[in-house]
Design goal:
526 residues; alpha/beta; FAD/NAD(P)-binding domain; 7-stranded mixed sheet; 7-stranded antiparallel sheet; 21% helix; globular
Length: 526
């Protein structure tokens, strides 16, 4: 039997973070993962993260994964791949299947970071080829470079459904609609808005009635549901699709913790381990971190992993109690800031009527996926001033502040914590550099110049599709709802390493559309 100071099960964001934290203290650490590549979900996440600098905000998940892996390997962590853990026992013995044998390992401490699995929804035709989980579709696109389908319907409007829906568009798929049985969008409004302005419709209070096809999906029928979740007769709608993508939540993968005899609790959506603040379960020196202990964002999972790793090495005597206290205060502060705002774990399913600043939450955003034109002016990031300026259509209290840090002139303020709504300070002025547009993880900042002469205005948008349009190319400006507004000519395309693959596309429109045009599409001029 091989012994390690710390054994980590799972090489995802929580597991690699725990391993790096423990190894940095001098512990001998091994990580076991059933997959062929480390990094877990991070290498599928091509979008930019939310949060602040300490949470790796505005960095794409795939890059964070590479950084974490390099950190762990640089600290001497041994990572075993294609090595599923078959058993975890009370004395922290771990049973692992390798290609040629089943081997036993012993950990003085064990961190379980096994993540979560996708939930499925059953309906007539749900076993047809073409019905897939959102995570599986993301793997196909971002790992294997294979399109999941050509025309897709997304079931689920949480962050996973919205993020993967946008990535489907980036991969060249057509997204027929986003459907959700809930009456309101479940994920961040900024994620919904960037889908809506491309023309994707939202059907809330709707669910799938059946998938059509014999040997594969050829269509899907959805219907509106009543207050008891039953389909209302006569409300059925059919979509021609070849793929149905399901994003209806995740379930924590707690099987190993149960096997080890760790106490579990029912949180209403599934069984979770009973953990102390540092992640220690009811079994001494067995810790849980990341989605296995409760579903949150990857940013939170990484911090939870570091908390568990730090606690484990303190129990093993690698650091002093004083050093642990300093490190824990730092990590807990970072975690607490991520858990604030209207999407905090304790407020799930309880979206308030007003923001923390007392402003009304956009009813249109919640029910249709986009801000209504009449609602925009009430938010502090939107001000009508002469000359070029950022228009910040961030209207919900979510943990994020890269826009503030990106602005070289300090004209964007996020005060009172990272969940506060960003404010445009017109006195500081805007240089028109576009760094805030590229830095915004929710793609909700636009540069607007209402008067560029001759009755025209210019709008600069974040653009993450290929091929990029060229200067002088003509197309159509789309509204926040994705409706065609007017002809629009591209007058500038900027790319820079500082933008991290987000291009800035500037197009010219008539002045009356400056505060309405939010996307550009190459198509016949209306």
């Amino acid at each position: 039997m091989t012994r390690y100071d710390v054994i980590v099960v799972g090489a995802g964001p929580a597991g690699l973070s725990a391993a790096a934290e423990a190894a940095a203290a001098g512990a001998r650490v091994a990580v076991f993962d059933e997959n062929a590549k480390p990094g877990g979900q991070l290498f599928k996440q091509i979008h930019k993260f939310f949060g602040a600098k300490e949470h790796k905000a505005k960095i794409r998940g795939v890059n964070i994964g590479a950084e974490l892996l390099a950190e762990a390997e640089g600290l001497g962590v041994t990572v075993f791949l294609n090595a599923p853990v078959m058993g975890l026992y009370k004395d922290r013995e771990v049973l692992v299947r390798h290609a040629d044998a089943v081997r036993r390992y012993k950990g003085d401490a064990v961190v379980v970071a096994t993540g979560a699995s996708e939930n499925m929804l059953t309906f007539p035709g749900w076993t047809l080829p073409g019905v897939t989980g959102a995570g599986a579709a993301q793997t196909m696109m971002n790992i294997n470079r294979v399109k999941p389908g050509h025309r897709v319907l997304m079931l689920g409007s949480g962050n996973v459904g919205l993020v993967v829906g946008f990535q489907l568009l980036q991969a060249g798929c057509e997204l027929a609609a986003v459907v959700d049985a809930a009456p309101r969008v479940g994920g961040y409004g900024v994620h919904a808005a960037k889908l809506a302005r491309t023309g994707v419709p939202f059907y809330l209070s709707h669910t799938v009635v059946r998938a059509e096809g014999t040997d594969r999906v050829t269509g899907v029928v959805v219907g509106q549901v009543d207050d008891t979740w039953n389909v209302i007769p006569g409300t059925e709608k059919r979509f021609d699709v070849d793929t149905i993508c399901i994003a209806v939540g995740l379930s924590s993968s707690t099987q190993l913790l149960k096997m080890a005899g760790c106490a579990l609790r029912d949180d209403g959506a599934g069984w979770l381990p009973v953990c102390a603040d540092d992640g220690e379960t009811s079994m001494a020196r067995v810790y849980a971190a990341g989605d296995v202990s409760g579903i949150e964002e990857a940013s939170s999972a990484m911090i939870e992993g570091r908390i568990a790793g730090a606690a484990a090495v303190r129990k093993l005597g690698f650091v002093t109690e004083e050093a642990l206290a300093v490190r824990m205060a730092e990590l807990e502060s970072a975690l607490e800031s991520l858990r604030g705002g209207m999407f905090a774990p304790g407020r799930r399913g309880k979206i308030p009527d007003k923001t923390d600043e007392g402003l009304p939450i956009s009813a249109s955003l919640l029910s249709r996926g986009y801000l209504d034109d009449a609602e925009v002016d009430q938010y502090p990031g939107v001000k009508k001033t002469a000359g070029i300026r950022p228009v910040i259509e961030c209207t919900q209290n979510i943990p994020c502040n890269p826009c503030r840090d990106a602005c070289p002139k300090g004209c964007i303020k996020v005060e009172g914590g990272i969940v506060s709504l960003p404010v445009y300070d017109e006195k500081a002025g805007c240089a028109g550099c576009g760094l805030c547009v590229a830095a915004c993880s929710g793609q909700s900042i636009f540069l607007v110049d209402d008067d560029t002469g001759g009755g025209a205005a210019e709008v600069t948008i974040p653009y993450e599709f290929l091929p990029l349009p060229g200067e002088g190319e003509r197309g159509v400006a789309l509204s926040r709802s994705g409706a065609a507004l007017c002809p629009a000519e591209v007058v500038g395309v900027k790319q820079s390493p500082a933008y991290d693959k987000t291009a800035l596309v500037t197009f010219r429109v008539p002045q009356e559309f400056a505060m309405k045009a939010r996307f550009w599409r190459k198509e016949a001029v209306v």
